[in-house]
Write a structure and sequence with these properties.
- The complex is a heterodimer of chains A (517) and B (247).
- Chain A has 16 helices and 21 strands.
- Chain A has 517 residues and is α+β, with helices and mostly antiparallel strands.
- Chain A folds into three domains: 188 residues, 3-Layer(bba) Sandwich (FAD/NAD(P)-binding domain), CATH 3.50.50; 159 residues, no CATH class; 76 residues, Alpha-Beta Plaits (2-Layer Sandwich).
- Chain A has a seven-stranded mixed β-sheet.
- In chain A, helix 1 packs parallel to helix 10 and helix 10 runs antiparallel to helix 11.
- Chain B is flat, with a radius of gyration of 21 Å.
- Chain B has a three-stranded antiparallel β-sheet with strand order 1-6-5, covered by helices on one side.
- Chain B contains seven helices and eight strands, in the order ββαββαββαββαααα.
- Chain B has one domain.
- Helix content of chain B is 35%, strand content 20%.
- Classes of the chains: A alpha+beta (517), B alpha+beta (247).
- The interface between A and B is medium-sized, with 12 and 14 residues.
Chain lengths: 517, 247
């Protein structure tokens, strides 16, 4: 006898729960009555953590796929454009020290690799531009506070690649309304009082205070840090990764703008501090600012003083919220008929905005690999676990890369971060290879890679890493390299003249809307 | 451009050269039109849709050239075409809105004081010697009236096209007689495939609102693109002949 998978029960209604619901429903047509039945239960009393305020460019296709209008998204989620990250004071700690990790690939990449040409040029010239400025025009746009597109660009299309900054609380509500109204998802506001397993160890149903038992063939745990289903009920242990990434605390604060016409910075600012770094994200009505630090290296009071110095005297009355971060993830992510998304699966410091993208990728994988029967679910679960584990490892490698090249010596935090025992073997191997050639697609051969090779180039060379290119055969491509550098300069001139200011475009989108085509 | 509200007393002495009006379109490849012009426009130009650069919203235009700022109908002294759009003929007059502190905004007649049509040697005046509106001004007022009245209908038409998903980007991909490839981007046209697949109910409501006539005008006008290509090729041939005489 086969047991078909017909219904899904999602526990938790933050961004993880609602995005997952939307992504699965968009594919499996919950509203038609023939597809999967999706129920989402969320508590009225448990708030959402809502730390995910930065997305990847993937969010554009995710929103489009679930049928959301980009103009509505800007109107309702306090959203703004994000064109990558500017890392300040990560290398030497000096005031003038910064580099960009833009969202666009270097000119000509990957068929042409400009990294060795740039390295050779900057070896020979003291006044060479930074890597990101030499190979990509996005840094120039960001420095001028410009938007990545124009009012005549269609929804979700851009001149420059972009992602979003958003208000996570508003975003969860916005996706919820869309899911309930347009995607046929059953929404229950109630407390889950108990999770009941059946004889074979699967989850049979969850008990609620007012709505009775909620059954499901597949349960999705979006309960946040608590990991109510996967962790507490299924007993999947937590794997601590704080031996690699030391940050375990956040102090978050919302900073108002000087006035409603203040520029909105079109990228994430990440400014290194003594024992961690401060994120600074510009939304329409406020900035989200927070200090993530290592409690093994400093105290909350000392961190608070650094955060206050950053936001300035004008905001000394703001009361930051402290959040404990357990750095790591569950040992497996899908067990029996239960799979975790979002914080229930794990969490890392928000350095490269990996939280929301992991939700999108996990939900997408659950949706496309949706097992037809309980009998085939274990195969899907095994593959899901393998891929998800791979993704966590790659993110951890990439985040660690930001730390190991720092030259800061002003605290034990930075020195400990360069300790070889704290660096994963996989990253050490890559670093050996990259001494002589730049990161390329050959280093990242899985279908489930997280960061493209170009991202490693931006961080590597941004952090001041020097490659030995003396043995590289550069002559063959030097003509095309020269053309690519020239092309980038031309694009820089063109788009810095053409693109509107970030806030001006957002205001226009709210007033006129973007066209769908 | 310097728009001021037209005053019959203050501007009574203005002289306007109507023969210079068409020169304002000499380097316009797109000229906006309103719904009431579609039928006449379709006999002369392709009708396309493009986005307003300030708002991103769609509006209908007649296409006058195959490159940005090219008007193939401009002969050097006039627009050599049987129908000249209202938006050219109304020059140098505009309709402004008067944001009254109380009550609804009202339309006011404005004139562009920077327009080259304002010239002491001009034959047209806005008022007669007795102070009444001149025939010329009455004609201008009726043109502006048609534009204002047509604006709403035009916006409704665009909205119903978007509602039914009937607009799609068109890229004109043309190779001219001299071998130059030509691409005009940022233009949108009717998606004929989608139009053919519309449900009977949709067609019926398009018929009721009068939008169906406009759609057919656009479809028929699309063939005018061949006229533009021919005109462009003639220019190339002329230029070639010119250069070969030179050498």
């Amino acid at each position: 006898m086969v047991s078909p998978v017909r219904s899904i029960c999602i526990v938790g209604g933050g961004t993880a729960g609602w995005l997952t619901a939307g992504i699965i429903a968009a594919r499996h047509r919950a509203e038609s009555g023939r597809g999967l039945q999706i129920t989402l239960v969320e508590s009225e009393t448990i708030g959402i953590v809502g730390v995910g305020e930065g997305t990847w460019p993937t969010m554009r296709s995710t929103l489009k796929k679930i049928g959301i209008s980009e103009s509505d998204f800007f109107r309702q989620c306090n959203a703004s454009f994000k064109q990558g990250a500017k890392f300040s004071r990560w290398v030497t700690g000096e005031e003038s020290d910064f580099y960009y990790h833009p969202l666009m690939l270097p000119e000509g990449f990957p068929s042409l690799d400009l990294a060795p040409f740039w390295t050779k040029y900057s070896d020979e010239h003291g006044d060479a531009p930074s890597f990101s400025a030499a190979v990509c025009f996005q840094e120039a746009i960001c420095e001028l506070g410009l938007a990545p597109k124009m009012i005549t660009s269609p929804e979700y299309a851009g001149v420059a690649n972009y992602a979003y900054h958003l208000d996570a609380g508003k975003f969860a509500g916005f996706v919820r309304d869309h899911c309930v109204k347009n995607l046929g998802i059953r929404h229950i506001v109630d407390e889950v009082t108990q999770v009941v397993k059946n004889d074979r160890g699967d989850i049979d149903h969850v008990e609620t205070s007012k709505s009775g038992p909620l059954h499901g063939d597949l349960f999705i745990d979006a309960s946040g840090f608590r990991s109510l289903l996967l962790g507490e009920t299924m007993g999947v242990p937590f794997v601590d990764r704080s031996n690699v990434l030391f940050i375990d605390r956040a102090l978050a604060v919302q900073v108002p703008y000087g006035d409603q016409h203040s520029d909105i910075v079109p990228h994430t600012l990440s400014t290194a501090q003594k024992n961690g770094w401060i994120w600074d994200i510009g939304l329409q009505s406020r900035r989200g600012v927070g200090y993530v630090f290592s409690s093994n290296h400093t105290t909350t009071d000392a961190a608070l003083a650094e955060l206050r110095a950053y936001v300035g005297d004008a905001h000394r009355d703001l009361q930051p919220r402290e959040i404990k971060i357990a750095c790591g993830h569950r040992q497996t992510f899908w067990k029996g008929n239960c799979v975790a998304v979002g914080l229930a699966g794990g969490f890392l410091e928000p350095l490269e905005a990996s939280a929301l993208v992991l939700i999108e990728l996990s939900a997408d994988m659950i949706s496309t690999m949706m097992p037809a029967t309980r009998e085939t679910m274990d195969i899907v679960a095994r593959r899901f676990n393998q891929t998800t584990q791979y993704r966590w490892d790659r993110i951890i490698d990439f985040l660690k890369l930001h730390y190991i090249l720092s030259q800061r010596t002003d605290s034990k935090f930075w020195i400990d971060n360069r300790d070889r025992t704290s660096i994963p073997e996989s990253l050490k191997e890559q670093m050996e290879l990259w001494r002589y050639r730049a990161p390329g697609d050959q280093d990242f051969t899985s279908n489930n890679e997280m960061f493209p090779a170009a991202s490693y180039q931006y961080v590597l060379f941004g952090m001041g890493f020097r490659m030995d290119v003396s043995a590289s055969p550069l002559e063959r491509n030097s003509g095309s390299a020269q053309r690519a550098f020239t092309q980038n300069d031309a694009l820089k001139v063109k788009w810095t003249k053409t693109l509107p200011k970030n806030r001006d475009l957002i205001n226009k989108i709210k007033e006129f809307g973007l066209q769908k085509i | 451009m310097r728009l001021v509200e037209l005053s019959r007393s203050e501007h009574a002495g203005l002289r306007i050269r109507a023969d210079l009006v068409e020169a304002s379109a000499a380097s316009q490849h797109l000229i906006p039109i309103v719904a009431s012009e579609f039928r006449k426009a379709a006999t002369q130009y392709p009708i396309v849709f493009a986005k307003n650069p300030e708002t991103g919203r769609f509006a209908p235009y007649v296409l006058n050239g195959l490159a940005v700022e090219e008007n193939l109908f401009w002969s050097g002294t006039e627009l050599d075409v049987a129908y000249v759009p209202l938006n050219v003929r109304r020059q140098p007059f505009y309709v402004g809105t008067n944001d009254a502190p109380q009550g609804a905004a009202s339309n006011v007649l404005c004139i562009d004081m920077d327009s080259p049509c304002l010239d002491g040697s001009g034959a047209k005046t806005i008022v007669n010697p007795d102070g009444s509106d001149s025939n010329y001004l009455q004609e201008i007022l009726s043109i502006l009236g048609e534009l204002v009245a047509g604006q709403k209908k035009t916006e409704q038409f665009i909205a119903s096209l978007l509602d039914l998903d009937l607009l799609a980007p068109i890229v004109l991909d043309i190779v001219l007689d001299d071998g130059t490839p030509l691409q005009v981007q940022g233009l949108y046209g009717l998606d004929e495939e989608k139009f053919r697949q519309l449900a009977a109910g949709d067609i019926s409501s398009l018929w009721t609102t009068g939008d169906l006539n406009l759609i057919y005008a656009v479809l028929i006008a699309s063939g005018q693109i061949f006229k533009l290509i021919r005109m462009k090729n003639q220019r190339i041939a002329l230029r070639r002949a010119w250069h070969s005489n030179e050498s």
